[in-house]
Each structure stands twice: as structure tokens, then as C-alpha cells.
Amino acid sequence: MSEPILQVRDLVKHFPVKRGVLFRRTIGQVKAVDGVSFDLNKGETLGVVGESGCGKSTLAQVLMRLEPATSGTALFEGQDIFSLNGSALRRLRRDIQIVLQDPYTSLNPRMTVGDIIGEPFEIHPEVAPKGDRKAKVRELLDVVGLSPEHVNRYPHQFSGGQRQRIGIARALALRPKVIICDEPVSALDVSIQAQVMNLLAELRREFSLSYVFIAHDLSVVRHLSDRVGVMYLGRMVEMGTEEQIYEHPTHPYTQALLSSVPVPDPSLRGQREIIRLTGDVPSPVSPPSGCRFRTRCWKARDLCATETPPLVDPGTSPVEGATWPGGDEGASHPSACHFPEEKPKVVA
Amino acid sequence: MSTEGHPAEPPNESPLQDPAAPAVVQQGAEPLLAVSGLHVEFRTREGVARVLNGVRYHVDAGETLAVLGESGSGKSVTANTVMGILEMPPAAITAGEIRFRGEDLLTATASRRREVRGEGIAMIFQDALSALNPVFTVGFQIEEQLRQRRGMSRRDARKRAIELLDLVRIPNAKGRVRQFPHEFSGGMRQRAMIAMSLALDPEVLIADEPTTALDVTVQAQIMDLLAEIQRERNMGMVLITHDLGVVAEVADRIAVMYAGRIVEEADVHSIYRQPGHPYTRALMDSMPRLDQRGQELNTIKGLPPSLTAIPKGCPFHPRCPMAIDLCREKDPELLPIAEGRVSACHRSDELMRDE
Ligand SMILES: Nc1ncnc2c1ncn2[C@@H]1O[C@H](COP(=O)(O)OP(=O)(O)OP(=O)(O)O)[C@@H](O)[C@H]1O
Ligand SMILES: Nc1ncnc2c1ncn2[C@@H]1O[C@H](COP(=O)(O)OP(=O)(O)O)[C@@H](O)[C@H]1O
Ligand code: SF4
Ligand code: SF4
Ligand SMILES: [Mg+2]
Ligand SMILES: [Mg+2]
Asked: Is the ipTM of this complex over 0.90?
């Protein structure tokens, strides 16, 4: 097992909910991230999947120090990210980069593409001497599948997918150690998505980069990730190798998620068993007691409302009442469910 | 809409110029919505970008046409042209027809066009947040249409808005109707936009990447919802997407776009079984699949062409693994390759032969 580059423990991020015009009172907390722990190993890609609003982006923002954590720790190469300042913080800002979700708002509309991609070099001039920058920017444009002749264009002159590539080029500029990708390819069409995914995989090999890869497309996550964490309402509900999560999911939420993925084969239309979740994700201001998934779970029992299922491996610490299909060692992995159980043939 | 004469070089796709004979229409029937020979240019500082170069497609009542293509291929521009919301300038429509129930919208009067758009054809936008006005409540935005176009009273419009939000399954519609777009989750905003587009009972719905920004369980709900509404109202739907999975689950027919033209059109089953254009085949090969964890994905080499300098001959030839000399010289026409299928490729017969 290689060593962890990023160690996150019990990370919590709450946003106060305020009311009132003159006297703004805090009337509650949005529990956006509520006790998340994981390790990211060197050269590894950890995929993070989950529904909109479950806290994936907040997790990314906190790890980037764009938002302060409410509690918990995050160590980058053994150093506490949240207590860094001065030159150590500057260094961190080079070493961890982010690729953002929203290609419409993440780029400054008044800057040319060349300036946007070249800006990191202004802030960190040690990476590229002034004379090299133009060539580097062109190279980066080429690498992400944009024509270098568009260097003087503005973001609004590109389509959504083209804008997302600009953001990726910018993140790659400083040759970071960790890249947090928040939905980096969801706006891209398949051929460019494939190029970018191959590129991310190639860069990872070449520079032993590590990725936290947040995406809503489970096929994309599977393709790039070594391990995968599934998030629901601020918590990780299941964590395992790509094989464990996709072939042997034991958490009902993961099973529903996987069964919702459209399969690119029209002959299978109407032949797959699809678990359709009803209802919306509950409000993160007042999440359900016990298991947060219980309001949408078809297996919920009384225990689920009173006791919070911990994210543990039922193979090593079996939970009372759990029906673990014994024998399959490889399938056993952490699942935050009181009744973890494989569902045969979730993926068609 | 003043079409500004034809482009200097007449576009060389004679079969596309004949709106009376779109290749895949059943004999005699006038399609609900038919776009043909549509040419749109953007006049930019770098020159004239030929964004649409003879786009043609049609959709019938109760049918879903998926428009599939890479980013920048002109899917949204086509949709925006149909909706009459193209920004002109910089854009200019230089040729083409957009027929709704046989009537050409490009030559119709402005008031007639306004009537058709909204009541005949409605659109769901790619980006729900920027399509909804942040300073008005969701309810107000739906009611506004009903009051202006249907002459409804404030009270009736409110009632109808709540019904519509209910229809798209927004929980507690009565309370939600007073909320602002930013108080909605991504999936709910998309639902609100669907509700808004349905307000005037359109016959055709153009959905521009309606679920791209959403997670799969929400995407599945929205696609179910759209399919159900479409069935109930026998609506025609143009679904713009780049997701080959979504297409496989909901489309009846697929039109594949490249560099501002349709390069292949076919029914969903045969195109997945046997793509009739090298571009379609490459798209399908480059897709990551849930049941696979490959080492390297197949990609399409290079980039889509710059629309200010579309290569001579077949616009796909610089990226095509099957390109021959002829492809560099002659632009292939969109021609029938099988029953109900058309493709614009000099070598499509070889693709159709080798199984
Ligand atoms: N600045 C903020 N103030 C208050 N609440 C916030 C803030 N930022 C995020 N939230 C809330 O925190 C929760 C998690 O948000 P976040 O955007 O991180 O989720 P996500 O999983 O990435 O969703 P999406 O995919 O839609 O972006 C949501 O309920 C959101 O409304
Ligand atoms: N306002 C504009 N000015 C210049 N070019 C534009 C403008 N809007 C769109 N384009 C160009 O038109 C082409 C098609 O864009 P669009 O239809 O948005 O693509 P998509 O298929 O991703 O929806 C792209 O090359 C894009 O850069
Ligand atoms: S703990 Fe209970 S409610 Fe939660 S996922 Fe498991 S069975 Fe469902
Ligand atoms: S015409 Fe030639 S270049 Fe174009 S798609 Fe066919 S084989 Fe490829
Ligand atoms: Mg997010
Ligand atoms: Mg678009």
C-alpha cells in the first residue's frame, strides 16, 4: 500500500442559516459536510459520487481552503492544511489545484483565454520564466483539446464544453501534486471527455499525481478511480475499491444510484431492473435522525431511525441483524448501513 | 426574419436544399416541425464562422428525436434559431426553412412567429439557473406567461402555476410557488423550467441538455417525467444531448451533428447496432461504460474544425480513420444508406457492409 498524501478525518463544514434584516440571527446550520474521513494515496484516484447538494463541492472547497472547516483535520503530506499560512500556504496553493464544476461562472469574462491560463504563472513566476509562458499556454490549450489560435478569445465565445477545457488547462498549469476535480468532464461530449480522461490518467502516471475525482457520471468515475466513496447528505455511506462499489455494492443508496445509470444499448430498454428513488433529498439543515437515507430507503426499519450506522466493514465488525452473505472476502468493505447486503445483478 | 441572401459560395448539398423531400419522413405526411437547409453565420473578429451549414431535421407528434453532437457542433444554435432567440447580430440566418405544421417561420410575420413560439414550440434550456430570472419568484415567471399570452387573471394564473409545479412533481407546490430560483435545488430548478415551458401547452418541446448538470437519480426522474408528459400530450420532442446512454433509453430517432450539419440520421436501434458514419462510430467507441474499466478510452484524434475555416471536402476528414483522397476533395451528400437511414460519407456502404 502506498503512503497517503491526503488524510481527512471527521471533516465537518456547517454553514449558518441566517434570518432577519437588522438583527441577523442564526436559526440553524446547513450540515453540508458532516463527518467525512478518507485517505488519498499517492498516485491514486479517489472517486466521489453522490446526489446534488450532498456536499461534494463543499468538501472540495474546504480542502482547497476556499472555505474554513467547522471541525476536523486534513493533512497534506503530513501537514495540517487548515493551520498553514505564509509561504507554506503559497506552496499548498501550488500543490493542490481544483477544476471546477461550472464552466459558465468559473472563468472571468473580461480576461482572454491566454490570460486566464497564464494567470497562475503570474502568481507563481518560479514555475515558468516570462519568456516561456506564451508557449506554455499554447501547449496547455493543445493538451486540453483547444485550438492554440483561440488564445485571444474571451470565455463567452466558447461553448460550455470548450469553457470547461479552459478551466482544466488552468489547473494543469502549475503541475500540482493533487488535483481536486469537481465534475470536470460532465459538460464535455464523449470524444473530448475521453481525451481529457486519458489525459488525466496519463498525467497521473507521468507525475504521480493524485486525484479526488468528483463526478455525477458513475461510468466516468469508474473508469478513472481506484477507490470510490459514495456520499449522501454530508456523509460517506459506502467506500471501497472500484470493483467493490460497482460489482458488490451493499448500501441501498449505492444500489439505487447504479441502477439509475442509463445504459447505452437501446435493446436493453425496459429490461433492466431500475430502482427509482422517490422523494427529494431531505434538507441538510435538519437531516433525518439515525440513518440519513432512511426517508428514501425501501429497507428502513425502526433501528434505522434511532441509530446512526457507522461507516464500517461488516466483514470485520458485523452488525447485529445484518445479513452479510458470508464467504466473499473481496466484497467486504465499509458500508454505513445497518443491513448491508449485496443485491444480485444491480448492473445490467 | 430577413434572410440576408445566400452565402457567397452556394452550399453544395443539393438534397438538403429540397425541403419537400426530407429523406426520413413517411410519404405524404407533413412533419410537425421540420428544419431544412438551415445556414447560420456568426460574424466575429476572426472572420465569418459558418456555424450551421445546411441543418435539417424533423420531428413528429409523439416522437423523440435526439440531436447528438460534440460541443460546438451547433445543436444549441439550431434550437435557438428555431425558437427565434438567436442574437442577430452577431448571428445571421443566410438560408433555410423552419416549418411548423408546414408554415415557414422564417418568412412569417413577427407576430405570427411569436404566437407559434411558446404555444407551438417551447424550449427547456441547457442552463436552468441562467434561464430563470433570479429576481422574480418561480411562480411569477410562470404566471407572467399565462397572464400575457392567455389573458388569465392573477388568481387563475397562480392556480395554474401551482398545478404545473405539481405536475412536474415539485413537493409542496403551494409553498414553492412563492420561492426564488436560488431557493430550489438543481433538480427542482430543472423541473420548474419544464413547468414553465409547458405553461402554454406546446406541441413541440425542445430540451437542450435538460439533465446534463444533474445526478443520475434526478436525471432518471426528469427523463421519466419528460417521457410521461410527452406520452400524455402526444408532444414531439427534440432532445439535445451528448449522453449516448440517455439517447439509448429515450430516443426514437437520432440525428448526429458535426460542424454545423447532420452527418447521420437513423432510428435508435439500427444506429447503435451499426453506425453508418465514421463519426458516429467513433463517438460510440469513445464512451466510458459502467460495465467496463478500460485502461485507455478510444478517442477521436484532433479537434472539431474551426468554423471560420472548415476544411474542403468532408469536414470530418482530418480526424477520420477512413479518409481517402476523395474525402479531401468532395463534400459527401446526406444520402439514404438503408431503410429510413441517411448518412453523409463517401464510404458509408463499407460501414454498412462489414458487420
Ligand atoms: N455558502 C453557503 N451558504 C449556505 N449553504 C451552502 C453554501 N454552500 C453550500 N451550501 C449548502 O450546502 C449543501 C451542499 O452543497 P454543495 O454545493 O457542496 O453540494 P454538491 O453535492 O456539490 O451539489 P451540486 O452537485 O448541486 O453542486 C447544499 O445544501 C447547499 O445548499
Ligand atoms: N456569440 C457567439 N459569437 C461567436 N461564436 C459563437 C457565439 N455563440 C456560439 N458560437 C459558436 O457557434 C458554435 C456552435 O455553438 P453551440 O450551438 O452553442 O454549440 P453546442 O452544440 O455545444 O450547443 C461554436 O463554435 C461556438 O463557438
Ligand atoms: S441503515 Fe436502514 S435506512 Fe439506512 S440504508 Fe441501511 S437499511 Fe436503509
Ligand atoms: S467521407 Fe471520408 S472523411 Fe468523411 S467520414 Fe466518410 S470516410 Fe471519413
Ligand atoms: Mg457540486
Ligand atoms: Mg449547447
From this structure: no
